[in-house]
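Lab notebook page, bench 4
Experiment: in silico fold of construct C2
Operator: M.H.
Input chain length: 208 residues
Purpose: comparison with the prior construct
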Amino acid sequence: MDVLEAQEHLQVIRTLMERAVLYRRALAPTALATGTVGTVAALTGTCYLHGTPAHFVVFWLSAAVVALVLAAVIIRRQALRETEPFWSVPTRRVLSALWPPLAGGVLAAGALLALPTGGAMVALILPPIWMVLYGCAMQAAGFFMQRGIRLLGLVFIVMGALWPLAEPVLQQWMPPYETGHFSMGLMFGVGHLAYGAYLKLTEPKAGA
């Protein structure tokens, strides 16, 4: 059984290496779509949503679901265009690496909401936690993909670790909920847009 698993693992890595250009092309529109959702959500939240911690959490988890659905649609269209199966072994491996840190983000949100004294501080505490966990997810998925994903994950981890130092400065100009929306928009919105633009601009030309 161990030998079969090792052979399957090597086959997955070989497949991903052979299709590196294809997956890179799929990552660019996925990152741009995710970044657009994050940016629009941040602007919407900053302007109109200053309610409760539950509102903040539900709002951003809903934005994450929208981004995941868009990403799935884009990846499926790319697979159909290249006449490849959507639910392939490499896809399953990548998803198996992604889901534990992402699930941890949901659990962290639930735990903070359960605290009776959380209040508006939830909007300050959650963004760096989500940054670090998302970065861990990208690092895990990067084991089966190209190095750029791991670098993106490292950026999220470092920014998440340092972000609590920046939040007191931001609060001099904006209240906690606006600070939280700004934090999410900067990393999950603008960060993804920058990554998607980089991938698009440096995309290998067809036939190159």
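Observations: The chain is about 85% helix and 0% strand. The CA atoms of residues 21 and 204 lie 7 Å apart.
Next step: discuss at group meeting.
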